[in-house]
Design a protein that fits this description.
single chain, alpha/beta, seven-stranded mixed beta sheet, 7 helices, elongated, disordered N terminus
């Protein structure tokens, strides 16, 4: 794959009417009307638990056999990961004709599963949706641990006051292993608190 190939499909190309996008039923139910309005020349391969629907640019929906399912783009949004179509959606992406582009909201693209997608020649991109909420969760847990907030909560329930010791994040030393989107955001938040990262 060349660097030019890594930029993803050219959605401004003249022949984009031939583009078929695979997505899960939950994403289609939530976004289908908007997607059809925004990309009226696209076809949509909608993955259900027990069948596949192909929605043509004119809105006509036909059921497609598994062996006939082909998509240029695979969209694995968070709705897929929270639904009953996740396994079927993944299986279709790795067993049928390789898509030119697979986009996911999933974190952890180092997983061997994603190697399978890449080894088939598909461009794999991620939305990095998880970096902010996970890094904020990490910082909240560190603050709870350093500030001994569980002890404070118990004292509040017991209607007692107990002096406590706590550690400051400021000037603490941190080693962040893995500087993907999540690791980068954890490091940035820790540094904002004055930690040595």
């Amino acid at each position: 794959m060349t660097d030019a190939d890594r930029s993803g499909p050219d959605l401004n190309r003249a022949d984009r009417a031939a583009t078929t996008v695979q997505l899960g039923r939950p994403g289609w139910e939530r976004n289908g009307t908007t997607l059809q309005a925004e990309f009226p020349e696209f076809s949509w391969l909608v993955v259900h638990t027990d069948h596949l629907d192909l929605v043509a640019p004119n809105g006509t929906t036909t059921t497609v056999e598994w062996d006939d399912a082909v998509a240029d783009v695979v969209w694995m949004d968070l709705d897929v990961f929270r639904s009953d179509v996740q396994g079927r959606h993944f299986k279709l992406a790795v067993t049928r004709q390789p898509a030119a582009w697979v986009h996911t909201s999933y974190a952890g693209l180092e997983s061997p599963y994603w190697d399978t997608i890449r080894s088939r020649g598909s461009l794999l991109t991620a939305s990095h949706l998880s970096g902010v909420p996970i890094s904020e969760y990490v910082l909240s847990q560190v603050l709870q641990w350093f500030q001994a907030s569980a002890g404070w909560a118990q004292s509040r329930l017991d209607h007692t006051w107990t002096p406590g010791e706590f550690t400051e994040v400021h000037r603490s030393d941190w080693l962040v292993v893995g500087l993907g989107d999540i690791g980068f955001k954890v490091a940035s938040l820790a540094a904002a608190f004055g930690a040595n990262v």
